[in-house]
Design a protein that fits this description.
Layout: E1 3-5, H1 14-20, E2 29-31, H2 37-49, H3 53-64, H4 68-75, E3 86-89, H5 99-116, H6 120-123, E4 125-129, E5 133-134, E6 139-140, H7 141-154, E7 159-161, H8 170-178, E8 182-186, E9 195-201, H9 212-222, H10 235-238, E10 242-243, H11 246-257, H12 264-269, E11 274-277, H13 283-293, E12 300-301, H14 328-337, E13 341-345, E14 352-357, E15 363-365, H15 368-386, E16 396-401, H16 407-415, E17 418-422, H17 426-438, E18 442-448, E19 452-455, H18 464-480, H19 485-496, E20 499-507, H20 511-522, E21 533-534, E22 537-544, E23 549-550, E24 568-573, E25 577-583, E26 589-597, H21 605-624, E27 632-633
Parallel strand pairs: 4-7, 4-8, 7-10, 11-12, 11-13, 16-17, 16-18
Antiparallel strand pairs: 1-2, 3-9, 5-6, 8-9, 13-14, 14-15, 18-19, 20-26, 20-27, 21-22, 22-23, 22-24, 24-25, 25-26
Length: about 650
């Protein structure tokens, strides 16, 4: 296919133009058809609509080289809402995140909000962003945020646009505080540096769920062509409808976070020292301020990782969940400074990793499930101290996603508060918490195993900033009792029963393979027949949240909502272990979560660990089949 590019004009070929309604007399690119009508139309649309020279040039280059397969991948599909909104790699194409797809997404959201809120032009929308960027595509979170604002402003919608980067939790907090109709946060959280994302919050301050996400996608498709002023980025600097909420929200947030502080005088006196790393993201300034609000001296920052860096140059992966390997700089600094606790917020500061130095000098990096046990114990203890009568405990709740540890459920059964679980993703937790609060209930804590914690209800989303301050206070309190967090965790398990968990993942870059793997489990030996065992381990119950099947329920229907957009099957084994296999909603990964929930009297952790390890091995060998499916093991994947 021959191609001639004339960059001085903005047109396309006559044979494609006739089909798509183009001006056939003025052509930028003269080309023959690719033989794929859908692709031809998508190419024409992209070259007509994209005004970013760098991403436009990427498509022109692929077209000139005849790389139709890559063009199809980039242009013939669109981003979909996952567990954390829209997320993809930065670059050209409708399947990627770039200036044009951000404009299209915002146009769709704007139209949807107009149908929902008659007072949209009074209440407006909150917009925030992190520090990601990619020079080769001229894409950055700040630019995406300004384009988002421009689209809304062009339609007469007031925009509360933060004047600088902020933690993700600031956006849902601002939505509630300012009574806005919605919030949009430009971030890809802990994803690799190539990625960015577009997270949407509803008026209640929780992430959107169905049917909003599906209806917004329809509106995006119906409003794909940029409106007249959608590319007018200067509106985000000059419009009278633009407001900067930074100072007001920052002050209100710190005042609200103080409600989670129960031992300010103790915090002011503690000899415990903390190191904090913000992983080249937004967290440094805000964690420093949260510590101040709690009465602490500032945590020691990791200088190499303190300031924003979109290349995340000191870590192979900007995800503190990866453990000691990515916390190396923090741990070495802590040893040098005599600090025994390390706090790590991910790049958008909505998640928190915690490590503690043991007596022998080694470091204990707590898993998300282990920190949840500690946070749950701590917040329950603090609530009891402030409510000595304890009469309202039955109206108190803690929540967790279904792939997370059941430790809070176990504690709830013994202590008398309520526990609920949700589908994976804080969008489900946030909305359920909102419902509980509207019904007069008190929510003490919620979490997901991937180090996402919601302490109290300051924000209806995970919040690494407030969690860092709460974790520090808990550690300082325990220090005053000559107890470490590790020792307290063991006491919790001794009191309520050991909950041993193993969680990991495989990378799979072929979506069809993921679908094939899960369909095999649904048709294991016969059609519509799930496996009855995994190796030597007999299966007691199966729950499939993708299809809505649950063998433990009398009507065989899952109590949790359907989640057709992702794959997730949970196996409960006769020996008491629980294992869930699911596809990630944000990355090309297949994750597995396993846990052995032992009774309080079962103290042989060596046996529990061995039994769970053997079950994990059987799960991988029989159900995931990494060799057959060409899966990449976590240990050799990039992130």
């Amino acid at each position: 296919m021959s191609v001639v590019v004339d960059s001085s004009r903005d047109k396309i070929s006559s044979n494609m133009g006739e089909r798509c309604g183009a001006d056939v007399n003025s052509n930028e690119i003269i080309m023959g058809s690719t033989g794929d009508k859908q692709l031809d139309t998508a190419i024409w649309q992209w070259l007509q609509w994209d005004k970013n020279p760098k991403t436009k040039a990427q498509i022109e280059s692929l077209l000139k080289s005849g790389k139709n397969r890559e063009l199809r991948e980039r242009l013939c599909s669109r981003m979909k809402f996952g567990t954390a909104g829209l997320r993809s790699s930065m670059g050209a194409g409708f399947s990627c995140i770039n200036d044009l797809t951000v404009i299209q997404s915002t146009q769709g959201i704007c139209r949807y909000l107009q149908t929902w809120f008659s007072d949209l032009q009074k209440r407006g929308v909150v917009v925030g962003y992190d520090t990601r960027g990619q020079m080769m595509s001229n894409c950055s979170s700040k630019r995406f945020a300004k384009l988002t604002a421009a689209v809304l402003l062009s339609q007469g919608v007031p925009v509360h646009l933060f004047s600088t980067y902020v933690p993700t939790p600031f956006v849902p907090f601002a939505v509630q505080q300012l009574k806005a109709t919605a919030g949009i946060m430009i971030t890809a959280s802990h994803n690799p540096k190539e990625d960015n994302g577009y997270k949407v919050y509803w008026e209640n301050g929780a992430q959107i769920t169905s049917p909003h996400d599906k209806e917004i996608l329809k509106c995006i498709e119906e409003n794909a062509e940029p409106w007249n002023d959608s590319w007018n980025e200067s509106l985000a600097d000059t419009s009278s409808l633009l407001q900067d909420p930074l100072k007001e929200i920052y002050n209100r947030y710190l005042e609200n976070v103080k409600d989670l502080c129960f031992h300010r005088e103790l915090n002011m006196k503690t000899t415990l020292r903390f190191v904090h790393t913000s992983f080249h993201g937004v967290g440094h300034d805000y964690v420093q301020l949260a510590f101040k609000a709690f009465g602490f001296a500032p945590p020691i920052p990791v200088p190499e990782q303190r300031d924003p860096d979109p290349d995340f140059s000191t870590v192979r992966c900007p995800n503190p969940e990866e453990g000691e390997s990515v916390l190396a700089l923090s741990l070495r600094l802590a040893e040098k400074e005599g600090a025994t606790v390390v706090l790590a917020t991910d790049p958008d500061a909505d998640r928190l990793a915690v490590a503690e130095q043991l007596e022998d000098g080694r470091w204990k990096v707590f898993t998300g499930n282990e920190m949840a046990a500690l946070f749950g114990w701590w917040l329950l203890t603090c609530w009891k101290e402030s409510h000595p009568q304890g009469n309202e405990l039955k109206n108190c709740y803690m929540l967790a996603t279904t792939v997370s540890s059941k430790i809070l459920q176990t504690i709830a059964q013994k202590e008398g508060f309520q526990f609920e679980e949700t589908l994976p993703g804080f969008k489900w937790i946030g909305n359920r918490v909102d419902t509980l609060m509207n019904n007069g209930k008190t929510v003490l804590f919620a979490f997901e195993e991937s180090i996402g914690f919601m302490c109290g209800t300051v924000v209806l989303d995970k919040d690494g900033v407030s969690a860092a301050a709460v974790a520090a206070e808990m550690a300082a309190f325990l220090k005053s009792k000559n107890i470490t967090m590790t020792q307290q965790l063991n006491r919790i398990y001794e009191m309520y029963g050991h909950h041993i968990s193993k969680t990991s993942y495989f990378v799979c870059n072929v979506p069809a393979t993921i679908e094939k793997m899960f369909e095999r489990l649904r048709n294991f030996k016969n059609t519509n027949s799930y496996p009855t065992s995994c190796g030597k381990y007999a299966i007691k119950h199966i729950r499939d949240c993708t299809t809505g099947y649950d063998s433990s329920q009398p009507n065989r229907k899952s109590v949790l909502p359907l989640s057709k957009s992702s794959q997730m099957i949970t196996f409960t084994f006769e020996n008491g272990c629980v294992a869930t296999i699911r596809s990630s909603g944000t990355e090309p990964k297949i994750k597995y979560y396993t846990e052995f929930c032992a009774s309080a009297g079962q103290s042989d952790t060596t046996y529990l660990e061995k039994e769970l390890t053997n079950l994990v091995n059987a799960l991988v060998e029989n159900f995931l089949e990494p060799v057959r499916n060409s899966l990449i093991w976590r240990s050799v994947s990039e992130c």
